[in-house]
Sequence to fold (310 residues):
Amino acid sequence: MTAIELLERLGADTTFDQKSLSEEDKKTLENIIQKAKIFNAIEIVHAPDEEEEKPEEEKNE
Amino acid sequence: MTVGAHIAPIARSHIENADIVFFAGHPLMEMWVREMNSNVHSLQTFYAEGKDRRITYKEMINAMMFEVRTGKNVVGAFYGHPGVFVWPSHKLIETAKKEGYAAHMVPGISAEDCLYADLGVDPGLRGSQHFEASQFMIYKRKVDPSAYLVLWQVGIAGDKTAAKLSTGKAYRQILIELLNEYYSNEHRVALYECPTVAIKRPRIEWIALSDFVDVKLSLITTMLLPPSQKLQKNQSIIDKLTLLERDAN
Fold:
């Protein structure tokens, strides 16, 4: 099983206990988790009224 | 949101059957999505430190619309709920529809959903207000201290540039001062981070509000402020309702 398959099963299968992971599996998972650490989750949020503000001529149409 | 756990069957089916999938989110999630479809393109490549995220988002939309216009079945897969804190997904659907293409969003499991489960908070109990931390600071917002307050992206609280990946202690201090209007420095607040993998525990750290200035924050840290005041009865409305009930009888 690949590392991502292991993670998928750990997340989705309640009968798959992480205690049953082999040392090699644990090492593989730690490795993949460490490598994937940097992640930009940031989203900017504009105020909707500013975003939707239209030029005067458009408003008068 | 956790690999393996947090995906709706309909979302998975869309990903599996797409001609091309664009993905934005955690690298582990991306690896997971690549197991579902062999033609996955990362949207993460458009991000860069110092680059205005508004430009990034426009580039994402252009890349996805390019494929839509060639007639492909395109899926944009976003970390968490695709419609929560994701500007490009809404804009993409709007753009595609304007050009006559069928487009829709399917809901996902957001960090908010995980927060309620992990912190044991029921937003229906006292009400719940949600603000993006920077927007909360920059604009005058009304806070109801008898309800829960959830501040998102506190790691970049006060960022006006839309280009930072973190802000510092001075920014956090200003946020604390703003919150002090409703919450004392001793008020207990929770810092929350949803685990990406099932072998990790969620971050649930209860601190005094004043300690927020010194804590370690990440890009996915959320702050939950429980109510600081009791619910106040609205007696005039109660009286009106009582009259209605009396009249009905």
